[in-house]
Amino acid sequence: MASKHLAALAIFAILLPAVAMATEFTVGDDQGWTINFDYVAWAKDKVFHVGDKLVFKYTAGRHNVFKVNGTAFTNCTIPPANEALTTGNDVITLATPGRKWYICGVNDHCANYGQKLAITVLEAWVSPASAPSTPAASAPSTPAAPAPSTPAAPAPSPPQHQHPVLLMGSRCLGISC
User: Fold this and answer.
1) What single string gives the DSSP state of each residue in 78-120?
2) Where is the Phytocyanin domain (predicted)?
């Protein structure tokens, strides 16, 4: 029985780095970076973290990608042309948390055809083992109240057939998730 649990833990230890690595999001999924697409709906159910990548796929020459601030996003203000990404397979690594805005600077694609994307990037995934510890609280200056005289109930014993589960934020790695 214990060997099954050890084997499962070994598999998780091997697979964990692959699962914990950054997620690559193709903006617009199969539609790619194009006009007349609802990027608000596309981004709505996605969770972006520092280290994740956005991939903007489009036909080079027909579109481009500009990283802009919130005001330029709202107004579809196009930055200088030398700031454009133009390969048709542009990859942006999300390096910092916070709001991020992207627009197409070709013609009126942003203003009239909705070719713009706004997302919120969260902190990177942190495993419990590497999470920073909080400093210990200093001892109170007054003595603590004595412990109650009635003994506490014993902690319930764990079920005999538990499956190992590893939680990373809202991602669950395990058999019983």
Assistant:
1) ---GGG-B-SSEEEEE--SSEEEEEE--STTHHHHH--EEEEE
2) 23-123
In the predicted model, is pLDDT for residue 6 greater than 70? no
For 84, the token pair is: 């454009």
pLDDT digits (tens, 9 = 90+) for 120-175: 999 997 655 544 544 444 444 444 445 555 455 454 444 444 434 444 444 444 44
Percent of the chain with pLDDT over 70: 59
- By C-alpha distance, which of 48, 47, 65 is closest to 115? 65
Residues 6+ apart with CB under 8 A from 67: 83, 92, 100, 101, 102
14: tokens are 């091997």
